[in-house]
Amino acid sequence: MQNPYQQPSQPGGLYRPPPFQAPPEPDAGGGRVSRKRLVVGICALTALAVAAAATGVVLGVRENRDRASAAAAASAADPTKPLVAGWKTVINPTHGTAFDVPPGWEVLEPQVFSGYEDRKDTEKVLIGHTAPAFYKSRWCSIDANGDGQVTDVRLGNVGTKGAGGAKDPADIAVKEAPTWVYAAYTQPDKSVVTSDKPVAYTTKSGVKGSYVRARSSGVPQSNRCAGDGQAIVFGFRNSRGDLVSWDFYGRTGVPGAVDDALIMRILSTVRLAGDPQDPGPGP
After folding, report:
1. What is the DSSP letter of 60?
2. Which of 203, 222, 226, 248 satisfies CB 3.0 to 4.6 Å to 51 for a cystine?
């Protein structure tokens, strides 16, 4: 019996829904898994694997400094209150983290897991995160292998994850940023992925850590949805001292591709959201 949470046309895709969520069902046309509930990761480089992608609406980055400081102070007491007026707050109670996204982004339940399998070994999860937010989840749709299973490719994906085993925040970012790019866009070719050195960074609410930006160049466009992408990973510690990361990845070189200013504006809103609910370090 087909796993209702994984489309066979996407050999690298993973989606784990919140507990007790009913599985998606075919629509009246038959053979189509509901677009509304199915969230999957997508691999690139073959006609049967589509690269997921991300972009955002570029909003003005100039803010009144006094208002921004007041918002950051308010967030320290109430992490559910967005730092940017009109944005949505994404909370991951498992890791005790929060951040904001623009109003056009789709915020999923905290229990949702979104990630990528190794295309050569589908039992192996390369990377993934929980409590994700997506931008334009139907940016590009394709029937990858002609079996009627339509894959919806999104332009944006951002979430948080644990980083058990990492040495420090910079170590998280160095390891995870290129892994996201490879998993989402370039499998099985690692040679087209490059990374910058870690950069020390402090968010508006005072969370200190390091981020790394990674990107691909030269991914074969095996279909109209495939192509290059980038990732930015920010490593930091939650209130318990556990190492965690905020992860963004998205397509590059396409109309509307996410602007660096917007990525950094979202990153600037990362903050702690109480004590983590998980038992300890983990994914």
Report:
1. -
2. 226
What are the strands, taking DSSP E only, across the chain? 13-16, 88-92, 97-101, 106-107, 113-118, 121-135, 140-142, 151-153, 156-162, 193-195, 199-202, 208-216, 229-237, 243-251, 271-272
Output the six-digit token pair for 64: 């009144």
- Of 139, 128, 75, give the one whose Cα is nearest residue 105: 139
Residue 121 is encoded by which pair of tokens?
């070994």
Instruction: Provide the whole-model pTM.
Output: 0.74
Domain for residue 42, yes or no? yes
CATH number at residue 181: 3.40.1000.10
Contact status, residue 204 vs residue 60, Cβ threshold 8 Å: no
List the structure tokens of 123. 């039992």
Whether the Cβ atoms of residue 254 and residue 186 lie closer than 8 Å to each other? no
Pick the closest to residue 54 from 241, 150, 184, 148 (CA basis): 184
The range of the structural domain enclosing residue 30 comes to 13-272
How far apart CA 177 and CA 196 sit, in angstroms, is 9
pLDDT, tens digit, for every residue of 245-254?
999 999 999 9
- Flag whether 7 is in a domain: no
**Residues 220, 230, 82: CA angle, nearest 5 degrees:** 145
pLDDT in tens, 224-274: 888 999 999 999 999 999 999 999 999 999 998 888 999 999 999 999 999
Residue among 151, 140, 114, 125 at smallest CA distance from 249: 114
Residue 68 lies in a domain: yes
Residues 15 and 153: their CA atoms lie apart, in Å, by 14
| 86's tokens | 């009109």
